[in-house]
Amino acid sequence: MESTPVQRDDPFLAFRRDHARVLGVLATLETNVLGGGGSFDEQPLRDLVALLERQFATHMAAEDAVLYPALRRSFPEVGGTIDPLLADHAELRATLAALGELLAHSPGDARDEQLVVLARDFTDLLRLHIRKEESLVLDVASRVLSRAELAAMADGLDAFRRDTQDPRAPRGR
């Protein structure tokens, strides 16, 4: 999530920006690392794992703690949409952890092959998850939530960010 306050009229903007940034990184990773055109360069994969660990600790945590519960309160019938997205979060976190564990092992053909396969699975799942979230959650919520509900969600996201921000991190304006 961004360090600037959440926009009152579009509390989903930070989520959309995070999604766009991550999709760009995934495209670069697929082209440069997973394309299979020669030797395996693991640094871009290490960079992706580090970026996503930070994103999951903020972006996904905000979805789990604020966005999804707010949608459930406003529209209890969205449970059938939210539950699979929460399951995706668990699977994405587990797969990201597995990537990190594999990267901690010494390089070798078998490990590198496992990394490539796992990274492909991970990128496919993350891309699909983002598409589902954009269309099933963000697009729908931005159309059906009232101004008051959007403002309350923005307040909740601001509070979540303040409560979870690293005190050593620079504060935005």
Tell me what you see in this structure:
The protein has five helices and no strands. It has 173 residues and is an all-alpha fold. It has a single domain, classed as Up-down Bundle (Four Helix Bundle (Hemerythrin (Met), subunit A)). It is elongated and about 55 Å long. The two termini are 14 Å apart.
Care to give the gist of this entry?
With 173 residues, this protein is mainly alpha-helical. It has helices at residues 13-32, 43-74, 79-103, 109-144, 147-164.
What key phrases describe this protein's structure?
173 residues, mainly alpha, Four Helix Bundle (Hemerythrin (Met), subunit A), 5 helices
Query: Tally the helices: what do you get?
Result: 5
Report the portion of residues in β strands. Answer: under 5%
Instruction: Provide the CATH top-level class.
Output: Mainly Alpha
The quaternary state of the protein chains shown equals single chain
Q: Total strand count, please? A: 0
Under the CATH scheme, the architecture is Up-down Bundle
CATH level 4 superfamily: nmb1532 protein domain like
Rg: 18 Å
CATH overall fold name:
Four Helix Bundle (Hemerythrin (Met), subunit A)
User: What kind of sheet is the major sheet?
Assistant: none
When the domains are counted, the total is 1
Task: Determine the mean pLDDT.
Answer: 85
Helix percentage range: over 70%
Order of helices and strands: HHHHH
Structural class, please?
A: mainly alpha
Separation of the first and last Cα atoms: 14 Å
